[in-house]
Design brief:
- This protein has helices at 13-22, 71-82; strands at residues 2-8, 29-35, 42-46, 49-53, 56-65, 91-96.
- The protein has 113 residues and is an alpha+beta fold.
- It has one domain: Alpha-Beta Plaits (2-Layer Sandwich), CATH 3.30.70.120.
- Strands 2-5-1-6 form a four-stranded antiparallel beta sheet, covered by helices on one side. A two-stranded antiparallel sheet has the order 3-4.
- Helix 1 (13-22) runs antiparallel to helix 2.
- The site of adenosine-5'-diphosphate has 14 residues, from strand 2 and strand 5.
C-alpha cells in the first residue's frame, strides 16, 4: 500500500479527480492549503512597489492505493491533468503505508482501500 500526496493548482482539481475516477480510484481526500515551493511565493506589484506573497492557494490531494493500481498510471494521470508548464504546477510525493483498517468492520490491509 502507498500514499500519494500531491499539491496541485485549485483549478486543476476537477480534471485530476475525473481522470482518477476513470481508472477506478475510489477514495481520496482533498485539503485546501496554502504553501510555496522554490520560488517562495510570487512577486506582485502594488501602488507602493513590489511585494511578495508567500502563501499561495493550492489543493493537497491524498490518495491511498493498494497493489491493484499501477502507481505509474496514477502519476501519469496527475501529471497530465495538473500541468500548465508554468512554475507552481505542484509536486507529488509517494509514501509507504504500513496498515489500513476499516473502523466499521475491523477489516485490515489492502482490501480496506
Ligand atoms: N518541500 C516542500 N515541502 C512541503 N510542501 C511543498 C514543498 N514544495 C512544494 N510544496 C507545496 O507544493 C505547492 C506547489 O509547489 P510549487 O510552487 O509548484 O513547487 P516549486 O516552486 O518548488 O516547483 C506549494 O505551494 C507547497 O504547498
Ligand atoms: Mg513554485
Amino acid at each position: 500500500m502507498k500514499k500519494i500526496e500531491c499539491f496541485i493548482r485549485p483549478e486543476k482539481l476537477e480534471m485530476v479527480k475525473d481522470a482518477l475516477f476513470k481508472i477506478g480510484i475510489q477514495g481520496m481526500t482533498m485539503y485546501e492549503v496554502k504553501g510555496h515551493g522554490r520560488q517562495r511565493g510570487i512577486k506582485l506589484t502594488g501602488r507602493t512597489g513590489e511585494y511578495m506573497i508567500h502563501w499561495i492557494n493550492k489543493i493537497k490531494l491524498e490518495i491511498f492505493i493498494n497493489g491493484s493500481h499501477e502507481i505509474d498510471d496514477i502519476l501519469d494521470i496527475i501529471m497530465k491533468n495538473a500541468s500548465t508548464g508554468a512554475p507552481g504546477d505542484g509536486k507529488i510525493f509517494i509514501l509507504p503505508v504500513d496498515e489500513a483498517i476499516r473502523i466499521r468492520t475491523g477489516d485490515r490491509g489492502e482490501e480496506v482501500i
